[in-house]
Design goal:
The protein has about 230 residues and is α+β, with helices and mostly antiparallel strands. Helix content is about 25%, strand content about 25%. It contains seven helices and 15 strands. The strands form three sheets. Strands 5, 6, 7, 8, 11, 12, 13, 14 and 15 form a nine-stranded mixed sheet that branches. Strands 2-1-3-4 form a four-stranded antiparallel sheet, with no helix packed on it. It binds uracil.
């Protein structure tokens, strides 16, 4: 693993912050001053300002994101970030993003490899959304959503769509384009009033109140690793 990623995983700094520490010569690996291209092996001893650092373990947290929180690291408007809500000693970051007004299941982790794979369309990870929309709709609208609709960046990939109540549509997508659900529903003439994600990659919110989070179980982590080809 590159030294900057190692330092980020250890919770010392962001990757960019780690680059600065490395450039300033404050980081050593086995007593040698680390460089930007230094690779750290599991047995290596990394130190900052002469103090040995302990590598942090991998952490996986499921958050019930409440409305009004942002998925970015910092918000110019000063709204709380999802990272601030999650009380993890590890430096976890969100996998993908939800809009500030969207609620629901959000995974945060410091496992970069798993995060990249979960976000890759190739692994067809299910993202289930329930949207409250303007106007009543019929089967024709659901069919259009299933087949794909023209939105910014091209036609959406085939999806599952069903009616789950008056003015409520459940969509199951594998893609994760910016504002995708809102764009798709606006394109079929039913703008979103409220958006919730009850499930991400099979992880459900059961029992988690808005704003609450929990660590994934070993079984859940294994399931994600299997779903993304990290174990056979
Ligand atoms: N699609 C959207 O439009 N917004 C979200 O937050 C997630 C998916």
């Amino acid at each position: 693993m590159r030294l900057n990623a190692w330092l980020a995983r250890a919770g010392v700094a962001s990757r960019r912050g780690a680059d600065e520490l490395i450039k300033s010569g404050r980081v050593t690996v086995n007593g040698q001053v680390g460089q930007l291209n230094t690779i750290v092996e599991p047995r290596d001893q990394v130190a900052l300002d002469g103090r040995n650092l302990a590598k942090q373990g991998l952490a996986y947290v499921l958050l019930h994101k409440p409305a009004g929180t942002v998925t970015t690291a910092k918000d110019p408007q000063g709204r709380p970030t999802v990272v601030q809500l999650v009380d993890s000693p590890a430096r976890v970051v969100p996998v993908g993003r939800l809009d500030a007004d969207t609620t629901g299941a959000l995974l945060l982790t410091n496992d970069g490899e798993l995060a990249n794979r979960l976000a890759h369309p190739r692994y067809e990870i299910d993202k289930v959304y329930v949207a409250e929309v303007q106007g009543e709709f019929g089967e024709a609208v659901l069919q259009k959503l299933r087949r794909g609709v023209e939105i910014e960046g091209g036609v959406s990939a085939p999806a599952e769509a069903r009616r789950v109540g008056r003015g409520r549509i459940e969509l199951t997508l594998h893609e994760g384009r910016k504002h995708q659900v809102k764009l798709m529903l606006a394109a079929v003439g039913h703008p979103v009033k409220k958006l919730h994600r009850p499930s991400y990659a099979g992880l459900e919110l059961k029992g988690l109140a808005p704003g609450a989070s929990r660590e994934l179980t070993r079984v859940e982590i294994e399931r994600l690793r299997r779903a993304t080809g990290l174990v056979g």
